Amino acid sequence: MLSRFLLPVGVALLGANLAVADQESCDLDNKCPEDTPCCSQYGQCGVGAYCLGGCDPRMSFSIESCAPIPVCESRTFSMDSLDGIVDVSEYLGDASKADFVSQGEPIAYNDNVLLTMPPRSVGTVLATTVNIWYGTIKAKLKTSRGAGVVTAFILLSDVKDEIDYEFVGTELETAQTNYYFQGVTDYGNSQNISLSDTFSNWHEYEIRWTPDKITWLVDGQEGRTKKRSETWDDENQRWNYPQTPSRLQISIWPGGADTNKEGTIEWAGGPIDWENHPDMENPGYYYATFGEISIECYDADSAPGTNKGVSYWFDDIAATNDTVVDGDKDTILGSFLATGLDMDKGKSDDDSSDDDDVATIPGGSSSGTGSTSGATSDEDSNSSDSSSSDDSSGGGGGDSSNSGSSGSSDSSSDSSCDTGSFSQDCNGGADSGAAPERVMGASALAGIVALGALLIL
């Protein structure tokens, strides 16, 4: 929902803790320069992490600037632990070594995964490493609750095609559905589905997406169908229908944060209560609970909707389904200096990034180290409320890119959070619910900066 309003806040939060290099903005009329050729999902030019998931080839230096993205694979995720979930600072594009990339504080509890939002934080998001070019996607979940608190289960492509379920914490008997073509806002695309309490009850939410129609189902019952034939745009002579490879993204985010615009806060049910809401008292943070998630690829014999190769990429900036190539280009960057134009740039003999070169990475620090407070915001930072350069609706936001080396990660083990007691006291009791401070190499920080929009969802 209108994540373009939220990007400047994410950048401000990053700037409060990191040495962030000046970045050029990008949009359809202002493409990135050759030295920082990749346009992230939220309109910032860069290299490395900017060139992975969320990189928009229409706004980049050239259509080849973005790295190819991993093709669809049918997968089932039990979501009973953090296995297969890696931090965005540990991912360079190898989908065989991770199921999801994460930002924020996911924790494992009672054989489920919780997406948490500690006090005055920006929430948590997980995004699949594979991309879905039509198929059936299911998720069992319990939403968050409370004014201003939003849970999202969406599909989002690099060119901002989008299919949504969103849940506002004051409307616990409503699932909002929506869709967008290339980020073009159309408020007539939204439709609600009624159901029982989404916080207290498990429901299975399903998206069946084919080249001809989208069906939203709850607990196996059809709630809404939208046919492609109903989306013809006579003025622009095109189908305004989601049609390009997309990642599944699940998130909890602060629609009611006081840094958002009035319209966003109103849509989200009002300002967030960071102090007196029952969830702030126990367990000390807002949360959404996720059970099993599954992806069943469309597996067409011929395009659109195939997954025969290793990767997808576009061969024309029109970025419609007839311009998607299903082929065998590599998806893995050699370092945070690499781009789709030079996938191996900066690659060292041991496949690790070279910290001596981090100053050339947007957001890098010449000191070689830096710190970020994870999902916790800095109230002393000067947050802007202006919108970003693109017209994407965002649908609860999504990460603009991924970063780091692949591998499994249990993020709760990196902090002093006591996840076994369903509490997230990560600061030694100083501020219950605050996310732990993390210190990482500047090359990893470059990836985090590339995900400024992801941080704020």
From TrEMBL:
Reactions that this protein is recorded to catalyse: Random endo-hydrolysis of N-acetyl-beta-D-glucosaminide (1->4)-beta-linkages in chitin and chitodextrins
E.C. number(s) listed in UniProt: 3.2.-.-
Top-level lineage group: Eukaryota
Catalytic site positions: E162 (nucleophile), E166 (proton donor)
Keyword entries, A-Z: Cell wall biogenesis/degradation, Glycoprotein, Glycosidase, Glycosyltransferase, GPI-anchor, Hydrolase, Lipoprotein, Membrane, Signal, Transferase
BP-aspect Gene Ontology terms: carbohydrate metabolic process; fungal-type cell wall organization
GO molecular function terms noted in the UniProt entry: endochitinase activity; glycosyltransferase activity
Annotated GH16 domain residues: 62-283
Protein topology in the membrane: Lipid-anchor; GPI-anchor
UniProt-annotated location(s): Membrane
Region (Disordered): 340-435
A Pfam family the protein falls into: Glyco_hydro_16
Residues annotated as signal peptide: 1-21
One GO CC term, this protein: fungal-type cell wall
Stretches with biased composition (Low complexity): 383-392, 400-423
Entry similarity comment: Belongs to the glycosyl hydrolase 16 family. CRH1 subfamily.
Known role: Dual chitinase/transglycosylase that plays a role in cell wall architecture. Chitinase and transglycosylase activities are coupled. Required for the polysaccharide cross-linking at the septa and the cell wall. More specifically, transfers chitin to 1,6-beta-glucan in the cell wall.
The protein, known as: Crh-like protein
Species of provenance: Zalerion maritima
Source organism phylogeny: Eukaryota, Fungi, Dikarya, Ascomycota, Pezizomycotina
